[in-house]
Fold:
Amino acid sequence: MSQPLLALRDLQLDFRTGAGWARVVDGVSLTLHAGETLALVGESGCGKSVTSLSISRLLPMPPARYSGGSIHVQGRDILQASSAELREIRGGVVSYVFQEPGASLNPVFRVGNQILEALQLHQPQRANTAEVIRLLKLVGIPAPESRVRDYPHQLSGGMQQRIMIAMALASEPKLLVADEPTTALDVTIQAQILDLLLDLKRRLGMAILLITHNLGIVGDLADRVAVMYAGQVVEEAPARELLRNPRHPYTQALMRSVPELGHPAERLRTIAGTVPAPGQWPVGCRFAPRCPVARTDCSQHPPRVAEVTAGHTVRCPYWKS
Structure:
């Protein structure tokens, strides 16, 4: 197989707190090839967004520090990259679409000027109004010739998110990191944004790293899924395989918490307890205090990663039971 576009190997990342250094990402390994979509799934606080920001070294140091592992983008060692190399990679190779687009757009500049700025930084030969309008058309903005002069407050949440996607695409990235791109949007607009990402992936051939807590959206969008819990990847598999045959108790609990269409229930199913805070992780399996099938030794020994089938791994010794 060709060289991966993105390769994380045993990544370890710490944050400095008042009580000292706390590990927030612990031994995460991920691989993403050109044209592929990988969904990184888990509850809030499990380390998904921090992992995605670490790819381009966007985390301020301090309070963050890389304490182990490696990150390679197109074969380049990100942890050893110079400031000039990072400027080229950020936007030029890896672009981000963050949640809450209203907080990411500058409220005092027209959206066309904000897209033009992205072009001037990464594609100066195409930095003109015609290219801005082309990008707006690409992401499905109606009447782009007039919308190019709008301010962010004049646009709906869904339209703002499309503007953010247009800005991310301005540099023609190889990898688009979409961090909860449908947060705070209604269900209809969520579906439109996800359909747009899938269409753009097919048309432009870029890879997508989708950060989400919603397993319900990954089946149609992702090729593979990695499930994170307490700073670790606990299960990874092709999307259809994972949805059809989840093996880790945490993945199974996540799937049970998704409402089923046509099966009304009085109460939604939840996962008891909360994600442990960084620096306060259990000694053994980090999910053991919340796991409905935990055994005595689960809280004593950290589980190793086991292979279920080719391409399907799970961090649980009792996945067969």
